[in-house]
Amino acid sequence: MGHIHLGVLPSSKKWREVVALLEDGLPDEEVLQASALAAERDLDRAAHDPLFVECVRLLAMIPQAARSPDFGQGLRDLDIAVASSPDLLQILSATGRHLDLVARSLGHRSDFGELARKALLSTLSSAMTDAMPSLFEATPSDVRDAARGFAQSARFSSLARSFYTRLLSDTLHSWLDRTLSAHVGDGLRFRSMEARSGFDAALTQYCFEATRIIREFAGGWYGKTVYRDGAISTQQATVFGAVAFKKISEELRHKRGADD
Known about the structure:
disordered N terminus; 0% strand; mainly alpha; 11 helices
């Protein structure tokens, strides 16, 4: 795939319609629906980004590494270079370094891949922190137990949904942010940054609702694949990543139809 730039709104007709809705003061829900519609094609292409695929693979395989007798070795087998009995910060740091190496090996850094990297690290950090008694008092055993818990199908479903919610939200934000900043002030759509923050919160909630379908199918796929093959390959992560975005797009279209 080519390099996908996400810093400003693309120039397609659908994205111009998003700008028009913002300028005309239409309800947030209509702007969000139009934004999601305009993003569908780019998200479908981005789902095959190699760095994104590696993030999906690690999301699935880090919990499996925690099930091995030696968590540190299990992570090293994933090319996450940690010592034995790593703490959470060491895991996150090593995972970030590994993804940087993957991006370097590709010869370029796609904007979407960078957002996927950020979403993976943030999701792992939040989910594992919430699963431990205390981040600062957590033992290596607590860290391993937290990671291993997400190897259960139901828990993986929640983890995957959190990842996709964050990634979808960050992607739409990256397209909209510069345009939205031009609509803050007296006489404009958002009279203040506080009003703009309300739109941001609505966007996050919209993305959370759109990723509900991930929770419904991710656990079954995960349990079946791991039981059958013992691991999630790059090819399987590619397929899962693409199917997940397809299902999210279907959910968004269904939501638009229900709201019409």
